[in-house]
Design a protein that fits this description.
418 residues, 77% helix, globular
Length: 418
């Protein structure tokens, strides 16, 4: 256990701090190679891990490609400006609309998509609106939180969702039927609590006339209007694929590539630019970090967790759900939600209560918000902000996350009992 833990901690350190610009995927592969060399994992374990994560990883790449194309044609900027205009200058209403937009983007384009695509757009618009630093930070903290708390409704809304759904053979429709209520509750409670905490930093009036007309930012209006139909058809395709037990990545990656080809045909994007800038490092990050974590499984960590979870499962459903969710949330906050979801899935495998798998997802999606390194989405979000000249410190972020996350997590977990 000691060797496996040291390799994991060293890998996590490299991923979080990225010394000398070392990318997250490279760090994870270094950790995986080290684990393989010292015998913490075997080649058979590598094969097993790849089998577990390939669908989630390729689906994520597809969703990001689709997001990048939509961003290139002005889709998200149009949404952001439209959102601001709809508020008619009411700062508090704009705050709510911004979070609803974040929830929409997170649900349809994954939490990492919201962090990578929406954050720089919202930041640019807030600067155009001449908002002060405290207001900008308030909007950004709230937007960063909603990107994860709203990543519950669809299998493809978060990498953790895909991994768990595949691990327990949960279909697209079955997953949605179980998680739509927690999603609605999570978004509603998140917005209410975030507003209550940050309302003093939100101005009553904002001059939205400083923004462009939404249609002026579109590269291709026909492609923009068609994109809404394309997204609707893609959702339908997921349901059809579910009926035939087809992998999520077939539609996520396929949809991203098809839309990229459409945008290329109308000369709205440069395909080489999109492909080159797609998050390929996440592929290596997913596989590498999961291999490192599998070493912890081999060292017995999942056995200890299984005993704890099995004891919880003998209690009432409410205690079992809340207990499981908070365990996965705590582990996600201190060791990142990507490895946590895999460890917890393995530990839950022989416990005959599928609701606990959903509790694990909720914990892994919301729990990471307690620390800056809890999720890949947060790391990406902080990196994007730092590039734009906005720095949020460790304690500033953690203080906010620890204040907001536990009560929202509790309410969302309780919604699973209904």
């Amino acid at each position: 256990m000691v060797v496996a833990s040291l390799i994991f901690l060293a890998t996590l350190f490299l991923v979080i701090y990225q010394p000398k610009g070392l990318q997250i995927g490279t760090s994870a592969i270094i950790g995986a190679f080290t684990a393989l060399v010292v015998g913490v994992v075997s080649l058979e374990d590598v094969k097993t891990v790849t089998h577990i994560v390939w669908d989630a990883t390729l689906a994520f790449v597809g969703i990001i490609i689709l997001s990048m194309v939509l961003d290139e044609i002005g889709f998200f900027e149009w949404c952001a400006i439209k959102m601001a205009k709809l508020s008619r200058g009411n700062g508090h209403l704009m705050f709510v609309y911004a979070l609803l937009l974040g929830a929409f983007v997170s649900a349809l384009f994954a939490n990492d998509g919201a962090a990578l695509i929406l954050t720089p757009i919202l930041l640019a618009k807030m600067r155009i609106l001449q908002l002060n630093a405290k207001t900008i930070i308030a909007f950004l903290l709230a937007g960063g939180f909603i990107s994860d708390s709203a990543s519950l409704p669809f299998v493809f809304s978060n990498l953790t969702n895909i991994v768990t759904a595949n691990y327990f053979n949960i279909g697209f429709g079955e997953y949605l039927s179980a998680m739509w209520l927690p999603f609605v509750v999570s978004v509603a409670v998140s917005i209410a609590l975030l507003w209550a905490i940050l309302r003093k930093d939100i101005p009553s009036r904002i001059d939205v006339e400083l923004l462009k007309n939404p249609d002026d930012v579109l590269k291709s209006k026909p492609l923009f209007y068609m994109s809404w139909l394309f997204l609707a058809m893609l959702i339908v395709a997921y349901f059809v694929g579910d009926s035939y037990d087809l992998p999520v990545s077939l539609f996520a990656l396929g949809g991203g590539v098809v839309f990229l080809l459409l945008a290329t045909l109308v000369k709205s994007v440069e395909p080489i630019h999109i492909i080159r800038n797609a998050p390929w490092q996440v592929v290596w990050f997913s596989i590498g970090l999961y291999i490192v974590v599998y070493g912890l499984k081999n060292a017995g960590l999942t056995d200890y967790l299984h005993i704890v979870l099995q004891n919880l499962a003998t209690q009432s459903d409410t205690i079992a759900i809340v207990g499981t969710g908070f365990i996965s949330a705590f582990l996600s906050a201190i060791m990142n939600n990507m490895p946590t979801v895999m460890i917890m899935d393995i530990a839950l495998q022989d416990i005959p209560n599928q609701t606990l798998a959903y509790a694990n997802i909720i914990g892994c999606n919301l729990g990471p918000k307690m620390t800056p390194f809890g999720s890949l989405a947060t790391l990406l979000w902080l990196h994007v902000l730092a590039q734009k000249g906005v720095k949020i410190g460790f304690w500033q972020y953690s203080k906010f996350g620890l204040m907001v996350t536990p009560p929202i997590l509790l309410v969302v977990l309780l919604s699973l009992t209904f």
